[in-house]
Amino acid sequence: MKVSIFDVAKKSGLSVVTVSRVINGAESVREKNRQKVLEAIKELDYRPNAAARSLARGKTGIVGLIVTTLQDSFFDAVVKELNEVLALHGYFLAISVSTGIGSDEAHYLIQEDRVDGLILLSPMEEDNYIVELKRRNIPYVLIDNQKPDNDAFSVTIDNYKGGYTATKHLLDLGHTSIAHLSGQDMFRSTRERRSGFLQALKEESMAPFEMITGDFEIDFGYDICRKWLQEGRLPSAVFAGDDNIALGVMNALLEEGIRVPEQVAIVGYDDQYISSKLRPHLTTVRQPTDRIGLAAAEMLLKRMDGTMKRGGNVRIDPELIVRESTVIPAE
C-alpha cells in the first residue's frame, strides 16, 4: 500500500501542514519538528508526489547533474547523497555524463524548462556553463570547481589542508625523502594538494624527493615507481594525488618484494572503495561525500525556492584516515 503524507503526519506526531512545510523546505518549521518529519519519511520510505508538487509550483520537479565520469567511487558516493536528499524534497535527479557544454547531453539538460536547477560536479569549462545558466536564469551549484573566481555558489574541499595533513603525517613518522605524484595542473585540487605538500616540507626545511605530474590513473603511479626502481633510487614515502596513483605505486613496489610501509610508506587521497580492500590497507585522505552532497543539495534547494539570493561558498575539511600503508599494525 502506498505511503501518503497522512501516514507521515501520524508517524511523526505532527500535522499534515507541518509535514508539507518540511517537504517544501519552509524555514518556519522548528528544527526539532523538522527532524521528526525527516525520520518518519525515512522510516516509511515516503516519496512525495513529484508531479503534483511540480504542478503546484509551476516547475518540472527535476534537478540536473552534470559530471565528467561515473567511473569513480568518490563521484558515485556524492551522487548517491544528492539523489537521496533531493528525493526527500520531491525532486528527481537527471544525470548527464558530459565533458563540456557543447555535448548533446549537457545541451538537453540546460534547455529552457528542462530542469529547475543544476549541479555541476567537478566541472571542466565551468565558465561557459555559468554564462549559459545565468542567461537562462537556472539556479546552479558547483561541487569541486576549478576556479576560485566561481566560488559564489559552490561546495569545495580544503585540498590544501588535505595535502598538508598527509605530508605532515609522513614527516611525523620520521620520513625525510618524500615524493609527490599528482594529477594534471588543470585541476584546482592538484594545485592545492601540492601547495599543502610543499608547505609541510618547507616548515621542516626539506625539499621533495621528486614531484611529478600525470593522470589520476593506476598506470601513472606504476610507471613512475618502475622508473625509480630501474634507476636504483626510491623515496622513503610517497604522497599520491589520489588512491589510483597510490595503488599503482604499491603494485610496482610489491612486484619487486619491497615492503610497504617498512621500506616505503604510501598515502593516497579520496578514500575510494578500493583503499580499504588493498593489502596493506591504504592510508588516505577522505573527502566526506555525505557532507559534500548534503551541502550542495541544501544550497541548490535554497536557490530554487528563492531564499538564497547572495552567494556563499561552503568549504569542507578532509580527514586523514591512517591505515597500514604508513603505520605497521601492532602485533
Automatic annotation (TrEMBL):
Molecular function as annotated in GO: DNA-binding transcription factor activity; transcription cis-regulatory region binding
Domain HTH lacI-type positions: 3-57
InterPro entries: HTH_LacI (IPR000843), LacI/GalR-like_sensor (IPR046335), Lambda_DNA-bd_dom_sf (IPR010982), Peripla_BP_I (IPR028082)
Keywords: DNA-binding, Transcription, Transcription regulation
Keyword Metal-binding applies: no
PANTHER family: HTH-TYPE TRANSCRIPTIONAL REGULATOR GALS, LACI-RELATED TRANSCRIPTIONAL REPRESSOR
Name under which the protein is recorded: LacI family transcriptional regulator
Organism of provenance: Paenibacillus solani
